[in-house]
Design brief:
Shape: globular
Mean pLDDT: 92
Number of helices: 14
Strand content: under 5%
Largest sheet: none
CATH topology: Na+/H+ antiporter like fold
CATH architecture: Up-down Bundle
Low-confidence stretches: none
Length: 322
């Protein structure tokens, strides 16, 4: 398939439905002005965290054999995230580019610029390029890279680079991880697969329930983006560029150095690296008293510009038609 045809298909099959879901969330309060947005967001996020997302993780983990190629995705995306984090640290903390920024703002931008929305936006794009089974790449990347690194290095960035209060109580990272239903659902599914205990009717049921994850989260994303305050600020656009362009470039350059020849899994890692800033950056900003407004702006700008950078990356031949 040539580039133009594939781009049109991408716009119709992926960008259109994702954009409609985000737009629905953005317009919800216009049609229902009595909506308690914070309460609705909190309830929908809880529904995803405790029901929908664990179900899809269990279904995928229970039916996916683990091999070297599959594990290359979290490894490569992790390398890209760490390199981008190092560049963001230099830009935000060491270079005199934006001297008036607070540490709370710098830390929020680091978190958003390092970690992408690799499941909720990455999964539909992966399925478009590589078929329905490609969702496994997003699942294993989330469980083996994003979640562990966010709740270790990410928490360190929030509490150490975002605050100078060394006397403040620090959260137990292990304790936080152990309270997350997605972790247990993934481990249970992985154990079933390894022990040969996969029960197809249960897998089908959980996969069906888990299909609500992406639509609900994208709806919430539309409610989260501060549409009326999307002012283009230099530090926000710089962090956005790091996330949308530098991270996939690093993955694309590193992949053939480790894996020869490169195949579907390595290209899937590039796709995962293209995704915009994760919504968890805003949750971390709220939890650790960082600059929530900056985090929301970064999520908004990176999500909007993703629809431009992904076709550009396709044109470069990093993913899709070359």
């Amino acid at each position: 398939m040539n580039y133009a045809a594939q781009l049109i298909d991408l716009m119709v099959q992926v960008m259109l439905p994702l954009s409609l879901l985000v737009a629905a969330g953005a317009l919800w309060t216009r049609f229902f002005p009595d909506t308690d947005v914070e309460q609705m967001r909190s309830s929908l996020n809880r529904l995803v965290m405790y029901l929908f997302y664990p179900c899809i993780l269990f279904a995928v983990a229970a039916t996916t054999p683990v091999d070297r190629n599959l594990l290359s995705v979290p490894l490569l995306v992790g390398i890209g995230s760490l390199v981008s984090g190092a560049v963001l640290y230099l830009m935000l903390y060491r270079l005199p580019l934006w001297p008036r920024l607070t540490d709370q703002t710098r830390a929020a931008l680091m978190l958003g610029g390092m970690f992408g929305n690799t499941f909720n936006i990455g999964a539909p794009v992966l399925v478009f390029f590589f078929g329905a089974e490609a969702i496994r790449y997003a699942v294993f990347n989330d469980m083996l890279m994003t979640m562990p690194v966010v709740w270790t290095l990410g928490v360190w960035i929030a509490t150490r680079l975002g605050s100078h209060d060394r006397n403040a109580a620090q959260p137990s990272v292990i304790g936080v991880m152990l309270t997350m239903p997605p972790i247990w659902a993934f481990l249970l599914g992985f154990a079933c697969q390894q022990l040969g205990l996969t029960y197809d009717p249960l897998v089908n049921a959980t996969r069906f329930i888990g299909q609500a994850t992406i639509p609900v989260i994208l709806f919430v994303l539309g409610m989260t983006i501060p549409w009326r305050n999307l002012v283009p600020r230099g530090e926000i656009l710089a962090a956005t560029g790091i996330k949308l362009l530098l991270t996939p470039l690093v993955v694309w350059l590193v992949a053939p150095l480790i894996y020869t020849p490169t195949g579907e899994a390595q290209y899937a890692a590039v796709v995962e690296a293209t995704t915009p800033a994760m919504m968890t950056a805003l949750l971390l900003a709220d939890r650790f008293k960082l600059d929530s407004a900056a985090a929301a702006l970064l999520i908004g700008w990176s999500t909007i510009l993703f629809w431009v950078t992904l076709p550009l990356i396709m044109a470069f031949g990093w993913v899709g038609a070359s």
